[in-house]
Design goal:
single chain; globular; 18% helix; Barwin-like endoglucanases; 6-stranded mixed beta barrel
Length: 460
């Protein structure tokens, strides 16, 4: 029932939080060396090339949108670039590694582009995203990525066969927001087949065993008033990243550019982690949005020397921006790594027309300030003010936070945990409900509903 996850070769150096010894990466490497992965059906160096619209910029019409350029690709987690997606087996045969520049040729047309190993990519094929390498896009989109147009013709607009691929021996810098596909041995994403779920409905809670967890100080009391919480249903999450964009728009989150993303300085308050399970040549993908968990026993609150991050009476872990002095102790102490630090004054040179798109209800943070998800506190307060004017409580569903509003599959539910009839309370009572890294006794107000797969194995 526990998911077997792996990190394919060249996908190491994790940048998600590590609290347990890392998974042994030799298993998949030995599998590849032993030839356990299927070999490409195409002759060596000959591939089929598939052209597809980019998940970020489509065919290039959105290339000048910095929010989209910095949103990680749902599968590769690459920002500000497109790559030649290649399977680990084909890459092994051709001696290609991540970030290698390869030359693709077909009927006298050539293209040089960086390669990237993607588990689950069919052997003997290359996938290229359209919409990059533009020269008249605008201030943001010019010169970003590789123009794959030279390989496309009227006869091969969607795909071409019989193309050749060779390594050039050169490298290209790629900014990847998640450099690996493993959960490092921790059950962060929890899943089971439908058959397994029917046998053991509480599998999600039982995947981690720990003694009863007790706090060293008095618990927060929410017997009166609200306690805000959130659930994310991994069964319906498709990893599209729209929640990240909605949060960025709502909360005036800056883009930082390719160089700063490569240094791990992206500012998005919601990251959508991607993991692979199964075998490298037939991998399954799992997605998990991770934002501030609003812990009841928040590790960040214990170490801030100026009380810039504090707990409020409604269960929110809030930030007082003008108190923050940038020690980053809170980020170091956060096991979820969801806090973002303004290394630079990213909004200093923002054009006036872009400033007009900022939300006037949200503070624009300056250099040296830590920030993170607030559960859209401005929307919470707006609904509370409206309810107070009518002398009533906030109704369930009256507050819709930005990520929840934008989610196309309605995987995110927000509301008052104190209300047993609220949708979020009902979700948290499901058998599939679990908390991320609950064994650390942080007691997050955000929880996840484990994924259930139905592979239809009876169909053979």
């Amino acid at each position: 029932m526990a998911t077997r996850c792996f990190s394919p070769p060249d996908m190491v150096n994790p940048r998600v939080p590590t609290v347990t010894p890392p998974l042994d990466e030799n298993a998949i490497a030995n599998q590849i060396s032993a030839g356990a992965i299927k070999k490409s059906a195409s002759p060596l160096g000959t591939v089929e090339i598939v052209f597809q619209p980019s998940p970020a910029v489509f065919d290039g019409r959105y290339a000048d949108n910095g929010w989209l350029q910095e949103t990680p690709d749902p599968i590769t987690k690459i920002t500000w670039d497109n790559v030649a997606a290649i399977s680990p087996a084909t890459a092994r045969e051709l001696g290609i590694r991540n970030s290698d520049i390869v030359r693709l040729a077909h009927k006298g047309r050539t293209l040089e582009i960086a390669a990237w190993l993607v588990p689950g990519q069919p052997d003997g094929t290359i996938t290229l995203d359209l919409g990059y390498g533009r020269r008249a896009s605008g201030r943001v989109g010019n010169g970003v990525g590789f123009d794959v147009g030279p390989l496309r013709t009227l006869e091969g607009c969607d795909f071409i066969t019989g193309a050749t691929i060779t390594a050039t021996g050169r490298k290209y810098a790629i900014s990847c927001a998640q450099d690996h596909g493993s959960m490092e041995g921790r059950p962060l994403v929890r899943e089971a087949t439908l058959e397994e779920y029917r046998r053991e409905p509480k599998f999600a809670q039982e995947m981690v065993e720990h003694p009863p967890l007790k706090s060293l100080w008095d618990e927060h009391d929410y017997s009166q008033g609200y306690q805000w919480g959130l659930t994310v249903d991994l069964n319906t999450c498709i990893g599209c990243g729209v929640c990240t964009l909605a949060c960025q728009s709502e909360n005036n989150i800056p883009i930082v550019g390719k160089t700063q993303v490569a240094k791990g300085r992206e500012m998005n308050w919601i990251r959508v982690d991607r993991y692979f399970s199964g075998e490298a040549d037939d991998a399954q993908v799992m997605h998990q949005p991770v934002m501030c968990q609003h812990c009841e026993n928040a590790p960040c609150e214990q170490v801030c020397p100026v009380a810039a991050t504090v707990h409020d009476k409604e269960g929110l872990n809030v930030m007082v921006y003008n108190r923050c002095i940038g020690t980053r102790y809170c980020s170091n102490n956060c096991p979820y790594k969801v806090r973002r630090f303004n290394f630079f004054n990213y909004t200093k040179d923002t054009p006036e027309i872009v400033k007009m798109a900022m939300n006037p209800d949200v503070t624009v943070r300056s250099r040296g300030v830590m920030e993170k998800c607030t559960f859209c506190i401005q929307r919470i307060n707006r609904a509370k003010n409206a309810a107070n004017l009518e002398n009533r409580e906030v109704r369930d569903g009256e507050i819709v936070i930005a990520c929840q509003q934008a989610c196309p599959t309605q995987a995110i539910v927000f509301g008052n945990i104190n209300d047993p009839a609220s949708k979020v309370s009902q979700a948290k009572r499901q058998d599939r409900n679990y908390e991320l890294l609950a064994e650390l006794n942080t007691k997050p107000c955000l929880s996840y509903l484990a994924r259930i797969r139905n592979p239809h194995s009876q169909l053979g």
